[in-house]
Write a structure and sequence with these properties.
heterodimer; A: alpha+beta; 2 domains; 11 helices; 50% helix; elongated; B: alpha/beta; Rossmann fold; six-stranded parallel sheet; 13 helices; globular
Chain lengths: 369, 346
């Protein structure tokens, strides 16, 4: 047998060993260790938690496997039927209620199960059950470090309980009981979380959309200058609850922009100009792929213009594609009243491109003859 | 899966990986003074840096670009008044060099402009949620926030706790941080619509544990100091930790610095015990750390005396409002210059 073949067989055998012995190794890691005193018990309990043994990915109890299978199915497109979630809650409720209240943490577990009426929830119709779960504070079931049922009247501080344990036997018994209670709390939370998964996915989308909208509001809209930002903040109110998104409008205030004026008297008919929106309003709808881009913006403002002479007064219109148009009149002693038509460089670029296109088309047509 | 600890920075611009020196400092402590010892830190914790400073930078860059477009044109077309209007805006080069634009701007806009404040909270919330969305049950997440980051952290968690969800319930009923460690806490002086003493950001609501330490010479935190003892309602003495550090804890000019706070045993030891368990740092290891800890670092006596005097002066006669922060800027800038002169770190 060649060396290569030996190597391949060896690797195959190793892989098979890893696959087959995985659960067994996890069981060994997650087995309840021998504890003798508080100093010993607390780090060992914490280590089980860190190793995902207490209801986590490495837990190999029958209940853990049931929940784990359900969570795996929840990754499928069809998800988990509500009835199965209810059934799982019923199973976990029964498992919890079967524990003896003489052991630490079990009275509190029973208190939580009773308060949440998990047994009843398992028997009610699916819609009522989901509605009830979505409105509930399921965070009460989420263990936090060494706290079980945190911030409820049934809170169990595993660290405090283990610290108070007396003899090695009592430490061992308390440790084992707390493992059970902790694990059940994790499993119940995981089961309830199946129903709230879509809620959180929706929030994730919403918060990123708001983030992108805020970026657009501050950096990609029109009224972005400091005094405009301050002025717009006078009219802005944050949500009383939760995260706020930006408005879909802005007030324009003393907003200057580079532009061009169309002057028939000059050989080069387009002369540089400055357009100042004195006061106006700019608004848009949220569009784009994720609904976070500024779409269909438009605005109007009372405006001033400069193009080398005295200022002109009039109005401006802002359109999509950064098109801005202005019509102002200025007065000078020698020339009387004059009307200026002002456009942004994007308008000029568009017209120039069109002219080029028309010229190209004409040349092409001429070439055909 | 390790527990996640988010780091929220203070004022100023922060680049990618800004958290690495801080994490290194914390790792060194755990390697040498935790019961599990070397190697445990990276298995137990995953540190994730939050960065909201780009919001301020983007705004300043947008302003600088607008200014650049306009300024040259104003002289050409005779619009001098418009030129004056934009002249004071920082151009791109001065943003990083000028203390006002690089640091104070963040604080002012965060305090005064709700659109910026809300944008920052949303940015931070998005990063927090990205970090925890795949966190399995049984793993925790906590936050260490510094300076302006403490106000940002407070406001973000208040919005987080009350955020309604589609179908019912709130985000606070789904997940909340385990421990919130506020370093150089300015959440009270920068409070806006939510009073920090009445908000939900307290143990038992938007977090389980709340730690904060006060340095009596830190000019940013001595005005309207936030003390959890002033929380109304039933106290949670076992769930919060507040400690006033020694007046003479001066190892460098910038005592407001996150790294400076994170050297003190009354910050480090409660933090890691809180994140893990009480004997993670045993009594013996605590005694060992305290024995080698030098209140003044490597400062010489003359340097210490000079620094202490500067710091005491920086806190004199400050108004009892957030505008006091404006008053201390110049004093702080002087201290920063001292720091650049070599008095920055043991």
């Amino acid at each position: 047998m060649g060396l290569r073949r030996l190597l391949v067989r060896g690797l195959y055998g190793l892989a098979l060993f890893v696959v087959l012995s995985g659960p067994a190794m996890a069981e060994a890691t997650c087995a309840v260790p021998t504890v003798t005193n508080a100093d010993d018990a607390i780090p060992k309990f914490e280590a089980l938690r860190g190793a995902q043994c207490l209801g986590g990915a490495q837990c190999q109890t029958a209940q853990c496997k049931l929940v784990s299978d359900m969570l795996a199915r929840n990754q499928d497109a069809n998800g988990v039927p509500p009835q199965q979630i209810q059934s799982m809650l019923g199973t976990l409720n029964d498992a919890g209620m079967s524990l003896s209240e003489t052991q630490p943490g079990v009275v509190q577990l029973h208190g939580m199960l009773t308060q949440w009426q998990l047994g009843e929830l398992a028997k009610t119709d699916a819609l009522t059950a989901i509605t009830q779960i979505l409105k509930s504070d399921i965070n009460q079931w989420r263990v936090r470090n060494l706290l079980i049922f945190p911030n409820t009247s049934f809170e169990v501080d595993a660290q405090a309980l283990l610290r108070a344990c007396g003899s090695p036997a009592s430490c061992q018994a308390e440790f084992a009981s707390l493992v059970n209670v902790y694990t059940l709390s994790v499993l119940i939370h995981e089961t309830l979380s199946v129903d709230t998964k879509d809620q959180l996915a929706a929030f994730l989308k919403e918060v990123h959309q708001k983030d992108e909208r805020w970026t657009a509001f501050h950096n990609k809209s029109l009224a972005v200058l400091p005094w405009e930002l301050a002025f717009n903040n006078l009219f802005y109110r944050s949500s009383k609850v939760g995260f706020s998104g930006p408005p879909n409008y802005q007030w324009l205030l003393l907003h200057p922009s580079a532009a061009l004026v169309y002057d028939t008297r000059q050989s080069d008919k387009l002369q540089p100009a400055l357009l100042l929106d004195v006061i106006g309003r700019y608004q848009w709808t949220w569009g784009g792929k994720d609904g976070s881009d500024i779409a269909a913006p438009w605005g109007v403002a009372l405006a001033m213009s400069w193009h080398g002479n005295g200022p002109g007064y009039g109005f401006s219109v802002h359109l999509p594609r950064n098109w801005s148009l202005g019509l102002t009149t200025s007065h000078s002693a020698g020339k009387g009243n004059q009307v200026q038509f002002i456009v942004s460089s994007e308008v000029v670029r568009f017209i120039t491109d069109k002219e080029t296109n028309v010229d190209d088309l004409r040349k092409n047509l001429d070439g055909l003859h | 899966m390790p527990d996640i600890v988010f780091l929220i920075h203070g004022m100023g611009q922060f680049a990618k990986d800004w958290e690495l020196p801080v994490v290194g400092q914390l790792r060194d402590f755990c390697d040498n003074y935790s019961k599990p010892g070397k190697g445990d830190f990276d298995q137990r914790f995953q540190f994730i840096a939050i960065n909201y400073s780009l919001i301020f930078k983007d705004i300043l860059t947008t302003w600088a670009n607008e200014k650049k477009d306009i300024e040259s044109l104003t002289a050409q077309v005779g619009a001098d008044q418009v030129g004056k209007l934009v002249s004071w805006i920082a151009d791109e080069n001065s943003v990083e060099k000028n203390f006002f634009w690089s640091h104070a701007f963040d604080v002012i806009t965060y305090r005064l402009l709700p659109t910026v404040r809300d944008a920052v909270q949303v940015r931070v919330a998005a990063q927090l949620f990205d970090g925890i969305k795949d966190l399995p049950d049984g793993s925790d997440w906590s936050i260490i926030a510094h300076s302006l980051g403490t106000a940002v952290c407070h406001d973000t968690l208040q919005a987080w706790f009350t955020q309604p969800l589609a179908g019912g319930g709130t985000l606070g009923q789904r997940t909340t941080p385990y421990l919130v460690q506020m370093v150089a806490n300015v959440s009270r002086i920068l409070q806006d619509q939510t009073n920090v003493f009445e908000s939900d950001v307290r143990p038992g609501r938007a977090c389980d544990f709340y730690f904060t330490q006060v340095h009596p010479l830190d000019p940013f935190t001595i005005i309207k100091t936030f003390l959890p003892t002033q929380w109304p309602g039933p106290p949670h003495p076992e769930r919060y930790y507040v400690k006033t550090l020694e007046h003479d804890f001066i190892q460098q000019a910038n005592i407001h610095d996150l790294a400076h706070y994170l050297r003190h045993p009354d910050v480090l030891i409660p933090l890691f015990r809180g994140l893990t368990f009480n004997t993670y740092v045993t009594q013996d290891l605590e005694a060992k750390y305290r024995a080698q800890f030098k209140l003044h670092g490597n400062l010489t006596d003359p340097d210490l005396i000079a620094l202490r005097q500067n710091l005491e002066d920086a806190g004199i006669q400050l108004p009892d409002s957030w505008t006091a922060l404006l008053t201390v800027w110049n004093r702080i800038e002087d201290l920063m210059n001292l720091a650049k002169g070599g008095l920055n770190g043991p």
